[in-house]
Fold this sequence. Notes:
Layout: H1 2-7, H2 10-51, E1 53-57, E2 63-66, H3 68-74, H4 78-81, H5 96-107, E3 112-119, E4 125-136, E5 142-151, H6 153-179, E6 183-185, E7 191-194, H7 196-202
Amino acid sequence: xxxxxxxFNPILIFAGFLILSGLISSGxxxxxxxxxxxxxxxxxxxxxxxxxxxAITDPKGIITYVNDKFVEISKYEEDELLGRNxxxxxxxxxxxxxxxxxxxxxxxxxxxxxxxxxxxxNGSFYWVETTIVPFLNNKxxxxxxxSIRTDITALKTTEAKLxxxxxxxxxxxxxxxxxxxxxxxxxxxxxxxxxxxxxxxxQYSRK
Length: 207
């Protein structure tokens, strides 16, 4: 028994103790870092869920995840969306070429950004500013797509109203030019602008 004990090298025992202690410390450190990473991921997901419309699809475009914002704006329940593709939201506004270019871009592993008009379950339309990010496997092929969207319906509605107002102004101006003699002067009575009818009847050119 004494011979066996003496055969142990104290240096080797000490070195083994240090290695074991290091492994335990490393394990504790890794565990702490994993907890921090999980917390950060949870915080990021919570922030996204509160502010943006998120969906995940597989390589074929089949929806595998939607957040509450997606459900809210689309008017569909989660179980009505999962297992379906985004054609369920197609408003018919965009031509087929629009979506072919979209799929060509993300299928090649590139990020796509643009504005899309979708149709909700209740028949209403809504606009989203969309970013689609492909996640690639070790063969550089997409294995899933994450879509992050922002509701811009109010902005597009305002834009449409502005365009309509500008068209009305243009139409009014055209009607006036065709039927009335119009001149604009400054506060001193100096003519600053005239329409074609004014030039026609006065026989003067604008210059």
